Amino acid sequence: MNIHTYEKLWLVAAMLLIVTFIATITYGSVGLGIAMVGDQQPTVEPTELSDDERFGDPRVEQVGENEYEAYVVAQTFRYQPDPIEVPEDSQVTFYVTARDVIHSFSIVGTNVNTMAIPGEIAEMTVEFDEVGEYGVVCNEYCGPGHHDMEGELHVVP
Ligand code: CUA
């Protein structure tokens, strides 16, 4: 083997590494239960949220024995529903969108933190084991009321 062949091998190895790296970033979040924004998202027409079957009536819905779905709308400068009420020992899949501008949906003290983007639906599944109360805050600057944009999440017995 001459030097030239080694160089080619390294090039191939480097390419493989890059491809693996990109694949990890792209598909790494699948199966972890928390979907990142940037995954392929279902979309929703922001101007027609009121007529949308899910977001026209923001709510928590039971879909299985301990499984719930929460449809959350972020808008200047509040969340709907508020408070969000879920039972303890539940698994909740949040679907979050925004009505007007970009907000975030961040549950204080947890790693739940997603952007809420008009037209996009962020999805994440969270388990709530214990009764408690959490604050929901917006981490994306969205206007003069941004710092007061707060909601509550209650995990009830
Ligand atoms: Cu909504 Cu900042």
Explain the overall architecture.
The protein is α+β, with helices and mostly antiparallel strands and 157 residues long. The protein has two domains: 1-30; 46-156, Immunoglobulin-like. Helices cover 16% and strands 37% of the residues. The chain is built from one helix and ten strands; from the N terminus they run αββββββββββ. The strands form two sheets. Strands 1, 2, 3, 5 and 8 form a five-stranded mixed sheet that branches. Strands 4-10-9-6-7 form a five-stranded mixed sheet, with no helix packed on it. The longest helix is centred in the N-terminal third of the chain and has 25 residues, at 3-27. The chain is elongated. The model is unreliable at 29-35 (pLDDT under 50). It comes from Natrialba swarupiae. Keywords: Copper, Membrane, Metal-binding, Transmembrane, Transmembrane helix. One of its GO terms (cellular component) is membrane. Residues 65-157 form the Cytochrome oxidase subunit II copper A binding domain. This is Cytochrome C oxidase subunit II.
